[in-house]
């Protein structure tokens, strides 16, 4: 489960630095450092995530969360009102992300499935 947690953290930092771009300025050094730190931390946690999640899946989910997160943040906090068609396509991206997660086999998911099967078998026998 740790790789998936690392991926969610990486995606959160991804959204953070993308959102920060709107107010980025080297004349505000503290903000600039925070944005750059978010960018770096996004990659650090993505690197940890790909140790247990296939690269293509991890990258797709990371960027997808970044896309939908930035889209949602802009809609809520920056008065960028999406059309219903845009909202529908963002929802389709989310559905795709859930589908990628649900169909990805990782060692931690396989271990959980085996433990569940063993537990059911023990309950049936006992």
Care to give the gist of this entry?
By secondary structure, the protein is mostly helical. Helices cover 80% and strands 0% of the residues. It has one domain.
Can you describe what's shown?
The protein has 126 residues and is mainly α. It has one domain (2-125). Helices cover 80% and strands 0% of the residues. The chain contains five helices and no strands. The chain has helices at residues 2-20, 29-49, 55-77, 84-102, 107-125. It is flat and about 70 Å long.
How does the SSE layout of this entry go?
Layout: H1 2-20, H2 29-49, H3 55-77, H4 84-102, H5 107-125
Helix pairs in contact: 1-2, 1-3, 3-4
Residues in helix, %? over 70%
* Domain unit count: 1
User: Quick check: average pLDDT?
Assistant: 87
% residues in beta strands: under 5%
Distance between the termini: 30 Å
Please state the overall shape, judged from the principal axes of the Cα atoms. flat
Supply Rg.
19 Å
How many strand units?
0
Backbone structural class: mainly alpha
- The sequence of SSEs as H and E is HHHHH
Number of helices: 5
| Biggest sheet descriptor | none
Uncertain stretches of 5 or more adjacent residues? none
Which characteristics define this entry?
80% helix, mainly alpha, 126 residues
